[in-house]
Design a protein that fits this description.
Elements: E1 2-7, H1 14-25, E2 36-38, H2 64-76, E3 79-86, E4 93-99, E5 105-110, E6 135-138, E7 141-145, H3 154-162, E8 167-172, H4 180-195, E9 198-203, E10 214-216, E11 222-225, E12 231-236, H5 239-248
Parallel strand pairs: 1-2, 2-3, 7-8, 8-9
Antiparallel strand pairs: 1-12, 3-4, 4-5, 6-7, 9-10, 10-11
C-alpha cells in the first residue's frame, strides 16, 4: 500500500484551508498510484485560541470540507483520511473522515480521548466519540484510526489490532513544547513495536505544532520523517513486513492477558 502524508499548518479560515489542501494535493498525480492520503487533525479549521467557540465553524459530513476531500479523492483515485470538526446540535465532534476513490464517505472516527492535558481543555469545546475501534479496509489492508491524544492510550491501539488492523493511521495537531517531539516519536514507535503494525502519522506543522509527520514500520524503525515545514511524506507499506515481524516477534500471540470484551 502506497501512502502519502500531507503536513500543513491550518488557519482559522475554512475556505483558505480548503485552498491550501487542494494546492498541496496538486503535487500528487493519479499516476503516482497512491492508495492512501492522510491529512492532519483539524485540517478543516485550526483549533485557534483556547476560548474560540468551535461550534459555529463546525460542518456537517456533507459540507464544503468533505465535498472538497471527495473531489480530490476522485481526482487521485485514492482514499483520503482528514480531520474536521463535525457539527451537532451542541458541541461538535473532532472527527476523521475516510473518503474513498469514488468520492463516497466510507467511515468516520470521532476522537475518543480529548486533550485535557498540558494546560488545555479540549472537552470544553468538543464532545468525545463513542468508545469503539474503527477499522476500515483500504487497498485490501485493514487500517485502524486514532487521533492525536489517543496515541497516549495504548489500549486503543491494541483494540484496533484486535479488530484486525495491520496499519494504524494517526492524524494529529500535536502541540509543540518541551518534551513533546520526544513523546511524539517515542509513542508512535511504541505503538508500532508492541502491536507489530505500520504506523502512519500526519501532523500539523508550523510554529504552533510539532510537525514531524512520519511512517514507522512494524519493527519500530522510522521509514521517513518530515521536519516542521509543509511537506509530503511518501512510503510503501509492505504487508509482508507485518507477517515477518509477527513471526519473529509473536508478542500478540503470546499474550496472557486477553481482552475482556
Amino acid at each position: 500500500m502506497r501512502v502519502a502524508l500531507l503536513q500543513l499548518a491550518a488557519d482559522i479560515d475554512s475556505a483558505a484551508n480548503r485552498d491550501l489542501v487542494t494546492s498541496q494535493l496538486a503535487e500528487l498525480d493519479v499516476d503516482d498510484g497512491i492508495d492512501l492520503v492522510v491529512l492532519p487533525e483539524a485540517t478543516m479549521h485550526d483549533f485557534g485560541a483556547p476560548d474560540l467557540d468551535l461550534a459555529p465553524i463546525a460542518e456537517p459530513l456533507d459540507g464544503p470540507f468533505v465535498q472538497m476531500i471527495a473531489a480530490e479523492a476522485v481526482r487521485l483515485r485514492t482514499t483520503i483520511v482528514a480531520g474536521m470538526f463535525e457539527r451537532t446540535d451542541g458541541l461538535p465532534f473532532n472527527t476523521l473522515v475516510v473518503v474513498g476513490p469514488d468520492g463516497q464517505l466510507r467511515a468516520t472516527y470521532r476522537k475518543i480521548h480529548l486533550y485535557d492535558s498540558f494546560g488545555y481543555k479540549e472537552s470544553e469545546r468538543l464532545l468525545p466519540g463513542e468508545i469503539a475501534p474503527v477499522v476500515v479496509e483500504i487497498a485490501g489492508r485493514p487500517v485502524g484510526l486514532m487521533t492525536c491524544y489517543d496515541l497516549r492510550f495504548p489500549e486503543l491501539a491494541r483494540a484496533l489490532v484486535d479488530a484486525g488492523a495491520e496499519t494504524i493511521v494517526v492524524p494529529a495537531a500535536w502541540v509543540a513544547g518541551e518534551h513533546k517531539l520526544d513523546h511524539w516519536r517515542t509513542l508512535l514507535t511504541a505503538r508500532a513495536i508492541e502491536n507489530t503494525v505500520h504506523v502512519v502519522a500526519a501532523g500539523q506543522g508550523g510554529d504552533r505544532y510539532t510537525g514531524h509527520s512520519l511512517v514507522v514500520d512494524p519493527w519500530g524503525s522510522i521509514v521517513d520523517e518530515a521536519a516542521s515545514e509543509p511537506a509530503i511524506v511518501q512510503a510503501v507499506l509492505d504487508a509482508d513486513d507485518v507477517a515477518k515481524a509477527r513471526s519473529v516477534n509473536p508478542s500478540l500471540a503470546n499474550r496472557r492477558i486477553k481482552p475482556t470484551s
